[in-house]
Design goal:
Blueprint (H helix, E strand, L loop, with lengths): L1 H7 L8 H37 L3 H13 L2 H8 L3 E6 L4 H12 L7 E4 L19 E9 L3 E2 L4 H9 L8 E8 L8 H12 L3 E2 L4 E4 L4 H20 L13 E5 L32 E10 L8 E7 L12 E4 L5 H10 L7 E6 L14 E2 H8 L8 H7 L6 H10 L4 H13 L4 H7 L7 H7 L6 E4 L10 E7 L2 E3 L5 E3 L1 H7 L11 E7 L13 E4 L6 H15 L7 E7 L9 H9 L5 E6 L9 H7 L1 H9 L4 E7 H19 L4 H13 L3 E6 L1
Parallel strand pairs: 1-2, 1-3, 3-5, 5-6, 5-7, 19-20, 19-22, 20-21, 22-23
Antiparallel strand pairs: 3-4, 8-12, 9-10, 9-18, 10-15, 11-14, 11-18, 12-13, 16-17
Helix pairs in contact: 12-13, 19-21, 21-22
């Protein structure tokens, strides 16, 4: 058609009819011949293609085959497992508990496997009864304000929509939460309730672990009652096998190609040398620190403002989002562990899973050196959990030390009390335990197998992308304290960030990071008033909020009242962003600034006291102005005290009873008008 069309439009065509007909005839003949040639070529091409594709058919089949293994039922049948322990984990603890439970199973003549719900089709739960003595256990952490963890989101969505008949399913749930948060253990409670609604049979009561108390003890207490219930249900008995079972085998790499060795990457090998978006938890972006300044003018603490350059990363963020950074452990701690265990930390090795069917081939990226593993992949600063002490006990040559370790790992009241005082309250990390138990010298490969993964640290972003599209700002305070043993413990991430030097070549100015989306958002309408409450580093997201409101005002938008309640210890020591806040107030963007200096007078003054003092204004903004309330900072005390203050204000000025006032505030939360970004 295009050939004919072009011929008709050719300006050189002769006007007489006979010539036009002749040209038309030639063009039709040409088209016919061209079409014939094209047709024959096409037929030959596809015929030849089919002949070539025949040998490739088996390859297509091999690609499809592994998908059948994505059914956890098929995997369990193939490997002779009857207990599956799913975990919803954000920081690795729920995954750790799931691994411990799956390992426990062999003591009762059963076989377990830990499973990430993100990797399987959970609708297969209805088929679990096909396996004899089968049981599904769920270790579910609650994240943020009652949300599922990232890897359990699909499972949560499926549960909400599912109408499956799970009447053949036997289950138990252990939830991981924190009582300082509003929605304590919401995910564990929901999974437990929803599975029962779908007809599944609960064989042991819901466990509720509290990280604000002693999560490890809560888990052990639940676990020691859980297994007898399993034994009773299935008519099995403990085999008495309490021996340590290695999950990974050590392979020392000799004559290794160093280009194939991990040096701290989280996912893809050489991903830090060859950066490719999109950037996330498994593929962090290496951001350069362009600014690192101390914010406070005095005092013992070090409060800092950092700016990370995200140019050319395609990373997008909104005010209120979180930035996650992957820190590195202090090299002196790593070296001391190497020295005390008499190990060459630069040996390159792999820890390979002995269960060849497992999706998790290594506990951390391998092959790598012990130095890299202890620096970038393993948590060496938190007190180790009881299962680590139990496994390490076999290596203590002194019987007293061995008994002490076993006692702390036991479920006896005396053992729990000893673990609480000697490990948790004394904040003994693995190095301190090795130092205080001279006969305990485990093989470094087993220690690396047992230690949990070093997790990313999250910070509320202290900037607006409308103003700083190519940089992300962090506001943080370095953590440093003396333990009961006289040692000085330092926060891993904050002390690592403190030493990041801007504009310096090399890794000393680079921070592996990614952005995690948040529900902590400014109102859709800029004219809506906002009340922000953020003492200390809790002011971070509000710097971003105010920057954004200032930008909106510059764009000619009508911006509502912007009210900030901020608090610090001393006006002349740790008043963060004093100049910036003063400028925002001068420009008329920050319409009210109320600052509580808690220690500048005999009686301590906190943000909640200032809220009470201005209760009429607060009530007017909330009740008439439909203001949005934002609280950021400490969950244990501040957030709770602020919430109680709002109950009082609503009750008094809204003429409501206490239960009505509580209900009023809860409804504000449901409507997204009372938002929290808190930590404990």
């Amino acid at each position: 058609l295009s050939v004919m069309g072009e011929a008709r439009m050719d300006p050189n065509l002769s006007p007489p009819d006979s010539t036009a007909q002749q040209d038309s005839l030639f063009s039709m003949t040409d088209v016919f011949l061209i079409s014939l040639i094209v047709g024959l070529f096409t037929y030959w091409f596809f015929f030849r293609k089919k002949k070539e594709e025949v040998p490739d058919l088996p390859k297509m089949q091999t690609v499809v085959a592994p998908q059948r293994d994505s059914s956890f039922i098929e995997k369990m049948k193939k490997t002779g497992r009857n207990i599956v322990v799913f975990y919803g984990s954000q920081t690795g603890t729920a995954e750790e508990f799931a691994n411990r439970l799956s390992k426990d199973a062999h003591r009762y003549g059963l076989r377990g496997m830990a499973a990430d719900p993100e990797e399987y089709d959970l609708s297969d739960l209805s088929r679990l009864s096909e396996i004899d003595k089968s049981l599904a256990v769920f270790c579910m952490a609650t994240y943020g304000e009652g949300d599922p963890t990232d890897n359990a989101q699909d499972f949560y969505d499926w549960l909400q929509e599912a109408d499956s008949d799970l009447s053949g399913l036997r289950f138990a749930v252990f939830g991981l939460g924190n009582k300082t948060y509003e929605h304590f253990n919401a995910m564990g409670k929901y999974v437990d309730k929803r599975l029962e609604e779908l007809g599944a049979q609960r064989i042991f009561e819901l466990g509720l672990g509290d990280d604000d108390g002693n999560l490890e003890e809560d888990f052990i207490t639940w676990r020691e009652q859980f297994w007898p219930a399993v034994c009773e249900h299935f008519g099995v008995e403990a085999t008495g096998e309490e021996s340590s079972i290695r999950q990974y085998e050590l392979v020392v790499q000799t004559d290794v190609n160093m280009n194939k060795v991990y040096t701290g990457e989280m996912g893809r090998l050489k991903s830090y040398e060859n950066q490719k978006p999109p950037f996330d938890a498994k593929n962090p972006f290496l951001a350069k620190v362009t600014e690192n300044r101390k914010l406070n003018e005095g005092g013992e603490r070090h409060l800092m403002h950092l700016e990370l350059d995200i140019s050319n990363s395609k990373i997008r963020y909104e005010s209120g989002d979180h930035v996650a950074v992957y820190p590195a452990n202090d090299s002196s701690l790593v070296n001391q562990i190497g020295e005390i265990l008499g190990t060459d930390l630069d040996i390159v090795m792999s820890l390979n899973n002995l269960d060849e069917e497992s999706n998790k081939k290594h506990p951390f990226p391998c092959p790598t050196s012990y130095r890299t593993a202890l620096t970038y992949y393993l948590d060496i600063t938190n007190p180790p959990r009881t299962n680590v002490l139990y496994e390490l006990a076999q290596y203590a040559t002194d019987t007293g030390e061995q008994e002490r370790l076993r006692k702390m790992a036991s479920s006896a009241a005396e053992g729990k009390a000893l673990y609480l005082s000697w490990v948790v309250e004394a904040r003994r990390n693995i190095l301190a335990i090795l130092q205080d138990m001279p006969s305990l010298r485990p093989p470094i490969d087993h220690l690396c197998e047992l230690l949990p993964r070093l997790q990313a640290r999250y910070y509320s972003i202290a900037s607006s992308s409308k103003v700083h599209s190519n940089s992300i700002h962090i506001c943080a305070v370095t953590v440093e304290y003396k333990t009961k043993t006289g040692r000085v413990n330092k926060g891993v991430a904050t002390n690592w960030l403190k030493n990041k030097v801007p504009d310096q070549n090399g890794s000393n100015s680079l921070v592996p990071m990614y952005v995690r989306k948040s529900q902590f958002r400014l109102p859709f309408k800029p004219s809506t008033p906002v009340i922000m409450i953020g003492p200390g580093t809790g002011v971070a997201p509000f710097i971003g909020f105010i920057q954004e409101r200032a930008w909106l005002k510059q764009q000619g938008k009508e911006v509502g009242e912007t009210v900030l309640y901020y608090g610090c210890r001393h006006e002349r020591e740790d008043y963060l962003y004093r100049e910036e806040l003063a400028n925002f107030q001068k420009e008329g963007v920050l319409t009210q600034l109320h600052v509580a200096f808690s220690r500048d007078q005999a009686e301590k003054v906190y943000v909640q006291h200032l809220l009470k003092k201005n209760k009429e204004n607060i009530w007017k903004l909330v009740n008439e102005g439909m203001a949005h309330i934002y609280v950021c900072g400490d969950a244990r005390n501040m957030a709770r005290d602020v919430q109680n203050t709002f109950y009082e204000i609503v009750s008094e000025l809204g003429n409501m009873s206490q239960p009505q006032a509580v209900d009023y505030v809860k409804k504000l939360m449901t409507k997204g008008r009372y938002s929290l970004d808190v930590w404990s």
